[in-house]
Design brief:
This protein is α+β, with helices and mostly antiparallel strands and 79 residues long. It has a domain of 47 residues. Helices cover 27% and strands 20% of the residues. It has a 3-stranded antiparallel β-sheet with strand order 1-2-3, with helices on one face. The N and C termini lie far apart (61 Å). 10% of the residues are buried.
Length: 79
């Protein structure tokens, strides 16, 4: 059975950090986005194997990330 997980990538000083939204324990870093993606897939695979060996239920996948725009106005602060 195929499960889909939602990856979040964040630019950091050393490259990129990748983390799964539905399974926050699956987290890794890479020097570039491609390396980070490959390492995140590997980390996910290892976590699936570990959970299966321990007979633990896998977190549900199929999350959705959506960017919500908001206009931010300058706020005058009273002195």
């Amino acid at each position: 059975m195929l499960h889909n997980y939602t990856a979040k990538y964040t630019k950091i000083d050393s490259g990129y950090m990748g983390q799964l939204i539905e399974w926050p324990e699956v987290i890794t870093e890479g020097q570039n986005i491609e390396e980070c993606r490959a390492m995140l897939r590997d980390a996910l695979h290892e976590m699936v194997l570990a959970y299966q060996m321990q007979k633990q239920e896998l977190p549900l996948g199929n999350g959705l990330i959506e960017q919500l725009p908001v206009e931010i106005n300058d706020v005058c602060q009273a002195a």
